[in-house]
Every structure is written in structure tokens, then in C-alpha cells.
Amino acid sequence: MNTTLDGNQSSHPFCLLAFGYLETVNFCLLEVLIIVFLTVLIISGNIIVIFVFHCAPLLNHHTTSYFIQTMAYADLFVGVSCLVPSLSLLHYPLPIEESFTCQIFGFIVSVLKSVSMASLACISIDRYIAITKPLTYNTLVTPWRLRLCIFLIWLYSTLVFLPSFFHWGKPGYHGDVFQWCAESWHTDPYFTLFIVMMLYAPAALIVCFTYFNIFRICQQHTKEISERQARFSSQGGETGEVQACPDKRYAMVLFRITSVFYILWLPYIIYFLLESSTGHSNRFASFLTTWLAISNSFCNCVIYSLSNSVFQRGLMRLSGAMCTSCASQTTAKDPYTVRSKGPFNGCHV
Predict the structure, then answer these.
(1) Which partner from 5, 201, 218, 237 sits 20 to 30 angstroms from 95, CA to CA?
(2) Which parts pass through the membrane (predicted)?
(3) What is the C-alpha to C-alpha distance for residues 201 and 124, in angstroms, rounded to an integer?
């Protein structure tokens, strides 16, 4: 339960994880370690993803790259935003009062994660159109419409959580590392229901509907191709490999990203609903579910780097370019080193 600290504890810093406080240091050690560790992973991972996308033109051949880059930028901003509670826990002075700081931080992270959730739903719609309407796909999904869609995602996400500033209730627990947010800013069941109906439920239903139909259609295509090849092989006496639906492999990559997103966010959503409906809260549960959900901002980088071969080639080329740049600087400083006559390879794939 979120309770106010008594007089005996007034000298101790406010810690959601009470066992994370040590007498030898004047800050919440465990909270700081978890948040700083996640912040470093999120920022570094998404910077790498953004650089690889800019350095690998083949990745931009898919229209979904617009949404994946949007998610990467949103996740990067999440990591940068996490510097605020990190500095607060380390007792760095903040330019504005704590109540407003935690409200701003909670609002920003809620909007950024809403952008990721809406982008995943748009990716599933994009893949659904690509499979169900392949002949008209290029006329339906244009760069201009994709940019408009991304703009609407950011606008919609901002509007959904904007009422939190007008005393509708707390949009989430991202700011609960601040004492005012944890003890004085409470969730409201009606505002929680509003967020679920406007964001969580539609996004989840869209993802379930589109991917279910994508895999059903791909399975039908694979079955038809195998039957056709079996018929021709019986006539010609030759057997061939059955080729799966060409979009299925890429859809599987996106499906893994979506699945991990909802797996990591499900405990947070369940706790959010329970706390809003019952009024009972738990500091440990709020911290654990919140930062488990935020860790998804780094998981997207890992999944995409392990699942997409073009991304892996772009990452290797980017690493090679950085190593070449370091080697050339070392060569320039060392007059006795023989310089390579080969041209410098850029990061293009």
C-alpha cells in the first residue's frame, strides 16, 4: 500500500522497493541500478537500430520500416525520459517541483508506449493489406499516407492521455518513483476504463484479428502450392521443395515483436485494472510491472536483430564501417603504419 512515511523514516529516501535501501548510501540502490541499467540498454539499443535503418537501404523497401523506425524513436525517447527518475533518485536537483515533474514524466512515457502499441497495430494492418490485396497494395499504401498515419498515431496517443492533467486520474505508474505520484496521485476507474477502451482493447483486437487471418491465408497458400507441386511431380516424376507464403517469414518477425510487447505489458495492464477497480495498491508490484513493461523498449532491438537477416547484414556493415574508421584514425596517428589503399566502405547495404 502507498502510505506516507512516518517520523522515524523521514531521514530515509522514498523507495518503492524498501529492501533496496542501504544505510551506507543515501539513495534507493536497487531502484537506481534497475532504472540506470534499463536506461543504458534502451538508449544504446535503439540508437543502433536507428543507425542501421539509415545505413541499410534494403530495410526501407518494406513499408513497415516507417512504423518500426517510429517505434525505435519512441523507445529511444523512453530511454532518455528515464534519465529523469534516475537523476531524481540520485538526489540531483530538478528544475521544477516534484508533483509536476512526475506528472510530466508519467504522461510522456504513457504517450510514447501508446505510440509503440498503435504502431504495432498499424504494422499488422499493413501486412494484412499486403496479403489480402497484393495487386492494389502499392496504390493503397503510399509514403504520403504512411506519414499521415504516423502523425495521427502521435496525435491520438497524446490526446488519449492528455486528460490526466485535468484531474481525470493517473495514466500509469511510470512516475511512482517520485513520492508525490505514489502517494498523492491516484488512479480513477473511469479514466482507466477510458484508456482501455480507447487504446489497449482496440490495439489488441486489431493485432489478433489481422495476424490470425495472415497466418490462415498463408497456410492456405502453402497447402495449395504443395498440392499443385504434388500433382505436377506425379506427372513429370520430379519433386520440388514446397515454398511457403513469401510474406509469412517477415510476418513472423513482426508477430514475435508484437507478442513480446503484449507479454511484457500484460502484467502491467492487469495490475492497472485491479488497482483502479479495488483501490488497493502495492509499491513492489507497481514498480515491477512498470519497469518490466518499459524493458520492452530494449527487447524490440534484440528481436529485430536476431530475426531479420537484412538487419543483421546492416549491423555487420555498420560495425565494419566503425572499425574501419577507428583503424584509419589510428593509422593517421601512427606514421610507421602502412595505410590501406582500398576505399572507405560506407554503411550502405
Answers:
(1) 5
(2) 32-59, 71-92, 104-125, 146-169, 189-214, 253-274, 286-307
(3) 15
Neighbour-count burial for 166-200, b at 16+ CB within 10 Å, e otherwise = eebbbbbbbbbbbbbbbbebebeeebbebbbebbb
Angle between helices 64-81 and 143-161 (to 10 degrees): 30
pLDDT digits (tens, 9 = 90+) for 222-263: 777 777 777 776 665 554 555 556 566 667 777 888 888 888
- Picking from 289, 75, 5, 84, the residue whose alpha carbon sits closest to that of residue 172 is 289
The backbone torsions φ and ψ at residue 28, rounded to the nearest 5 degrees and listed phi first, read -80, 95
CA–CA gap between residue 117 and residue 120 (Å, rounded): 5
Nearest alpha-carbon partner for 143 in 74, 61, 63? 63
Which residues, including other chains, have CB under 8 Å from residue 61's CB and lie 6 or more apart? none
Burial tier of 158 (Cβ tally within 10 Å: 0-12, 13-18, 19+): middle
Q: Which of 166, 163, 339, 129 is nearest to 247 (CA)?
A: 129
C-alpha cell at 66: 516507417
Write phi, then psi, for 21 (nearest 5 degrees).
-95, 135
- Closest C-alpha to 116, from 73, 87, 59: 73
pLDDT beneath 50: ranges in the chain: 1-11, 20-21, 23-24, 239, 337-345
SS3 168: coil
Exposed/middle/buried for residue 67 (C-beta within 10 Å: 0-12, 13-18, 19+): buried
- pTM across the whole model: 0.76
CA-wise closest residue to 290 among 203, 204, 187: 187
Cα separation of 98 and 176, whole Å? Answer: 11
Q: Give me the phi and psi of 177, to 5 degrees please.
A: -70, -15
Residue 302, CB-side half-sphere exposure with 13 Å CA sphere:
9
